[in-house]
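Pilot study result, target chain (243 residues):
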Amino acid sequence: MCNMSRPLLEVIALDAEDAIAAQSGGADRLELVTEIAADGLTPAVETVAAIRDAVALPLRVMLRPGDGFRTGGPAALDGLCATAEKLCAEGAREFVLGFLDADGHADLGAIRTLTGVLGEEARWTCHRAIDHSADRSALRARLDGFPGLDTYLTAGSAAGVDHGMAVLRGEAARTAAGEPGYLPRLMVGGGLRLEHVPELLAAGVDAFHIGGAARPRGWSGPVTATAVAAWRTALDDGAAATA
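Predicted structure:
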């Protein structure tokens, strides 16, 4: 488990090779996905099992049936629920999900259906659907107190961290104040770069999510321990400087 006295570093892993490198570099947790060209879809059950056997890190498994943030209809949601059941049977206990309806608001029906399959003990991250929602404050209000929701993954903007920094600073302050709808941990990801770290740490952000930044050759290449270690050092040194 991660050391909560230091910033959390979550790394996207596509396979066991990625997972081993991320663990070696100092990652605290992995997000497991496939089809990164579609911004990350649900990985195969076999891939999740292989990664689980390869590393000791906590794993959060993406539950997303297709590009975008809609469920894709009842049949697609049923299929996702069936896959989720198989993942739970394989021992998965942490997930990443989030759906929007046709108006861009949180699709509570779909989220309730899927989290009902996962069970009350499951922990989950609401992913960047919040950045694409019609009203991010309204989404937080609708999901306030939702069972299992403990993290929001956000760039503050659909366009990435460069455009969302002011929103991230504001939400970090509201999370620190314990405002309703802001109790889940704020984890920043989406165009995140090392130069963003000092400002985010100063704002009180303590969780960071990287994908391509952990891959020196981009998405055509694997995660490397060296790239992850650079983030680990930057986060730990930055946190010590702001303590």
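One observation from the pilot: The helical segments are 16-25, 45-54, 74-89, 108-118, 136-143, 161-176, 197-203, 225-242. A full batch analysis is planned for the follow-on phase.
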